[in-house]
Structure formats: structure tokens, C-alpha cells
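Q: Got a minute? One more chain.
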Amino acid sequence: MIEYFRHGLLDIGPFLAILTVLVFVHEFGHYFFARLFGVKVEVFSIGFGPELFGWNDRAGTRWKFSLVPLGGYIRMFGEGPLAARLPQESASTLSPPEEAQSFQSKSLGRRAVIVTGGPAGNFVFAILALFLLFAVYGRPVTPPEIGQVAPHSAAAAAGIRPGDMILSIDGQPITRFQDIQKAVRPSAGVPLTILVKRGARTLTLHATPRSTEITDRFGHHLKVGLLGIAHSGVVYVKVKPASALARAAGETWNLSAQTLAAFWQMVTGRRSTEDLGGPVRIAQLSGEAARGGFVAVLWLLAVLSINLGLINLFPVPVLDGGHLLYYAAEGIRGRPLGQRTQEYGFRIGLALVLSLMIFVTWNDLVHHLTWRF
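A: Always. Here it is, folded:
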């Protein structure tokens, strides 16, 4: 238990560092478009609560670090600290120069762009992080090299050994370990001709995948073919910068789609909510990534940045998606929703967000700390 708490304390530093980067990226997305459209940003804060230290820039923005380092915010001219972006009854009393710098004076489209800037910053950052990873260190690839062979398995019966490189299956070229799975799973009980490279030799082996019943993530029982092998590990293959940028954008899209699909499966009950993690789990992942090196940290930053961008686009008041929902209503009605309606929406949204935070933190405690103890 003492060792566990020692690791927990060591995880706090990497967790706060990673969280600070992600919060800064998100808030800077809002800040960038606000300044682009001439809105005065009064405060750019990393953290909440009392200020620890800060400075003022020439544009009048107070950049500061606050006591509670679990998030951050920007406050634009005319906003309240809590009911952000609500219509201001005093807007009519502003002088022309002040009104020109007010968030509320901007067009509906520009306000929507400023709000979208935060999540957009997270996605752009993820693409840049993955681009750096792919261009400098390489794209992670699982080669079709056998790392382990299960005893008494179909692979063992066929003479496949650890260290063998699978070249083809039934004439189909194999370039990744995933290609082996695609060829073998639908072929339960069907003899396969496998071309294997073993050292300097090329061998032709024959294996019949054994039918095995598995339960997929949707709860369906399936019969698939298995050879009884495991891969040897992951290697990093460098790619050209232009290709790395395209692959980084594609990987960001794929990770976003997978995250949304997993969330929908939880909502519909086809996937357990045990996969939902909060601050404790993120801290554990941050510590593990820090111990794994810069590549692991870069990958975690990209994944968490994508998640932060997606979560903020959910149509829940207090999140960016909730503001966009209000703007959509404003565009349809031709005027903003009433202030009382927006305030009630923010209260409901805040309750939902706090409930989710409590749930995921409890999830962390139950499924991580309890098992450790």
C-alpha cells in the first residue's frame, strides 16, 4: 500500500503538467479567435480560485496561474465570471470603443467561431502532436512477427515458432499483425497455407485455425478461428513530413470516431461504464506515460486533447457545445433565448457536469484503488 501511495504522489507532477498543457491549448483556441475579432480578453487563467502569480500584457489581458490547477478559463470583456456569454443588460450603456471590444457586440457567426475555437485548438494540437511523433519517431506499426506461440495450439501443431515472420496467408500478403487476424478469424476449421520467413529461409506451413467462441464488445457470441499466437511488439516506422501530416490528421479522425462510438455504446448499454475514467485514472496514465518516455507522453497528450475537444462539443450548457446550442436557437428564432432560460440551462448543465465528475471519480476509486488495496 505504501508503494502504491508513493507511485500516486509521483504521478501528480506529470498529471498537472499534462493537464496544464491541455487547458492552455483549449483556452488559447478561444483567446486566439477572440483577439482576431477584436474582443478584449480580460483574464487568461490556468486554474481556478485565488491567483498565485501572473502578469499583464500590452492588450490588457491578465495572464495568471491560480490555486486550484484543475482546469482554466478566459474572461472576455462584458462577461460575468459564472454566467459567461449571457446577454448583458448593461451593454447599451457601453461607449462605442468599449462596445467594439465586447463579445456580445459581435455577430452570431463570430461568437460561434470564438466558442468553437477551444475544441478546434485541441484537435489541431492533437494533429501536431501526432505529426511530430510520426515524422520524428515514426508511426507505430505491429509487424507480423511471432512473439509467442501457445502450447498445443493450431500454430504449434503447424510448426510455427517465436521469431517467425508471416509473409502471406493463402497467397494474401501480410504486412501487419492485424492482417493475420483478419485472415485467420473467418477461417475456423479451414486449412490455411502460411508462408513464413525463418532466419534466411522461407518455409511453407499448413495450419487449421481452431474454432473458439468469444464475446465481442456488443455482447454477441461469435465463433472465430484462432492460431494461438501473439505479436512480438510495436516498432516505429518514420514517414515523410507531408505523409506524416496526412496520417496524423487521419489518426485524429479515427480516434475521434472510436471515442464517440465507445461513448454511444455506453449510452445504449452495449458497453460497460467501467471504461470511463476521471482525474485519478488520468493521473495514473500520466505517470505511466512519463515513465515510458517522451513518445508515450506525446501519444497521451494527443489522445487526451481529442477527448477534451469532443467532450466540450457535447450540447450541454456550461460546455462549449451548450453555447453553440444556444446560438443555434438564436439563429432560428432571430433573437437570443431569454436570460432566465439560459440561466436555468446553465444550472442544469452544471449539475450534469458535476454529477459526471463525481461518477467518474467514484469509478476510479472503485475499479483502481480498491483493487490495488
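A: Residues 143-233 form a domain with the Pdz3 Domain fold (CATH 2.30.42.10).
Q: Perfect, thanks.
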